[in-house]
Specification:
About 80% of the residues lie in helices and about 0% in strands. It has 8 helices and no strands.
Length: about 200
């Protein structure tokens, strides 16, 4: 992650927190949503693990997948939210979220080198469950657009943490980075299995 990217992410986070009260005044006391949207992924361990794992896998794969995998996840997350807001049912959402943590951890743990389109499709499938949960748990008083902007910002930040961690690990040498990333993936998978069983 470049210094400009890190600064941009930090500024985006700070701006989201600063804007929420002002926008709440615009839409009335019950019109807030940016901070609530931002906090939803951050406060759920399953969301955090999956989104960081996407970033780790993207860093592990390198090349265009550095941005393709996070972009696929973010786009499908928004789609999942829209599906929930439209009242369309999605079966086994909680299982899908927990399963995404396990599988993403396994992909990182095995350094899975499946073709990029397939990796993007899998990431997008997982993201549908996460986005659906965001939409299903939308506070009644929140403005959906602001809420969506909030969770998109949080998702991008978590992906950035994963990508940045993976790229930083590579500075210590390819072999050490490969081991560290694989170990991280195994830990994520185990945590996902625990969450699924809980």
């Amino acid at each position: 992650m470049t210094r400009k990217t890190a600064v941009g992410i930090a500024l985006g986070f700070a701006t989201s927190l600063a804007w929420n009260p002002a926008l709440a005044h615009t839409y009335g006391a019950h019109g807030a949503g940016l901070t609530a949207g931002f906090m939803h992924p951050v406060m759920g361990l399953d969301h955090v693990l999956a989104m960081v794992a996407v970033g780790l896998w993207a860093a592990q794969r390198g090349g265009a997948d550095l941005w393709r995998l996070p972009a696929a996840f973010i786009g499908a997350t928004v789609l999942g939210m829209l599906v929930a807001l439209a009242g369309i049912g999605l079966p086994m959402v909680e299982l899908g979220i927990a399963g995404s943590v396990v599988l993403l951890g396994i992909f990182v743990g095995l350094a899975a080198r499946i073709p990029s389109p397939a990796a993007m499709a899998l990431v997008a499938l997982f993201a549908l469950f996460h986005g659906y949960a965001h939409g299903a748990e939308l506070p009644e008083t929140a403005v959906p657009v602001l809420y969506a902007l909030g969770f998109v910002a949080a998702t991008a930040l978590l992906h950035g943490i994963g990508v940045g961690t993976g790229l930083l690990a590579k500075r210590f040498g390819a072999r050490a980075a490969a081991r560290a990333l694989r170990a991280s993936g195994i830990l994520v998978a185990l945590a996902g299995a625990f969450l699924a069983a809980a």
